Amino acid sequence: MTSLDKPTEETSADDARAVTEAALFEAFGGVRGMVETVVPGLLFVTIYTINKDLHLSAIAALAVSLVLVVVRLVRKDTVKHAFSGVFGVAFGVVFAMMTGNAKDFYLPGMLYTLGLGLAYIVTTLCGVPLIGLILGPVFKENLSWRTRNPGRKKAYAKASYAWGAILLAKCAILFPLYWWADTTQLGWVLIALKIPPFLFAVWLTWVFLAKAPAPIDVFAEMEAEEKAAEEREREAAARPAE
């Protein structure tokens, strides 16, 4: 193992924690991303609770999600979280309109949560924890953690298991309610379960990564290798011809 293969030990613990916090904030959208996730569903269940009008509730939820995207576009902000919200709401609207059952507005999101929870578990069992695939580019380490940073891979595995367990526990609550509860009960429980489990999973991820070795900046390594190659070429060109 060369020196480049070892995680740098120069970064202090406080700096590592700060970098981890910033990366998690960026990856998961921060406070604004959470708001954009909650508002459309909250509007849907509020309107439906008041007047039981599926069409009005669905249109209002879709409209507000589109407004959130437009606001981000106008402000030239990152739109990936807002766009994912639009697609989720749109699928919910289509399902509910097709079946005429207001509870089906929530079904695509519930199925996505189930699939994502399983993906976290399965990818970790396969040796490629999903949270590492998500956060690797954010930390500028890409997939270097898989073979060159075993301590970090272990932290990603723990975080992925935590995400999977939390999401599957959430599904264990929601799917029985989908069958047995009415639309408003399901909607309000789902809204209540939006933020707390998410924050708990993010906090656990922060705990695991803050204690893990620092990420290997593969982009900095590539830049250093390119500069070294250029320097060698200049030195070779400067030598007198034999």
UniProtKB/TrEMBL annotation:
This is DUF3159 domain-containing protein. Keywords: Membrane, Transmembrane, Transmembrane helix. The chain crosses the membrane at residues 54-74, 81-98, 118-139, 160-180, 186-209. The keyword Nucleus does not apply. It holds the Pfam family DUF3159. InterPro entries: UCP010219. Signal peptide: none annotated. It comes from Streptomyces africanus. The keyword Transmembrane helix applies. It comes from the Bacteria.
